[in-house]
Amino acid sequence: MALSTRLQSSARRLFPNLKPEQAMAELLLERAQKNLIRFQSMARQFEQKYAQQFDEFRQQVVSGKPSPNQEQDYFDWELAVTGIDDMEAEIKRLREMSAGT
């Protein structure tokens, strides 16, 4: 049994009312939602740590001489903020695919 055939069989069992493409979109949607939660959690931790929003922190880092820890936090926080935007867009796209396929 080829891998794709086995995957299609599993998709039919796990998602009996969905086409294989919809099942894949559902699985990807679940992963994107988990990633979104992880990025949101990271961003909240930095907001609490620095008691400000990312844009304010960015201005401080760009206009000053950040410590090595602040500089690393800046890159990690930026990753979280960018990840949130990316995952929100991906979730929207996957929901449209799941509903429309």
Name a few traits of the molecule.
about 100 residues; elongated; mainly alpha; 4 helices
Task: Summarize the topology.
Layout: H1 3-14, H2 20-50, H3 54-63, H4 68-100
Helix pairs in contact: 2-4, 3-4
Helix and strand content put the structural class at mainly alpha
User: What is the typical, i.e. mean, pLDDT?
Assistant: 91
In total, the number of domains comes to 1
| Series of H and E elements | HHHH
- How many strands in all? 0
Share in β-strands = under 5%
Contiguous uncertain segments of 5+ residues: none
What is the overall number of helices?
4
Helix fraction by DSSP (H/I, runs of at least 4):
over 70%
Note the main sheet: none
Radius of gyration: 19 Å
> What's the end-to-end separation, in Å?
26 Å
Shape: elongated
Notes on the protein architecture:
With 101 residues, this protein is mostly helical. The protein has one domain. Helix content is 85%, strand content 0%. It contains four helices and no strands. α2 packs antiparallel against α4 (68-100) and α3 (54-63) runs antiparallel to α4 (68-100). The longest helix has 33 residues, at 68-100. The mean pLDDT is 91.
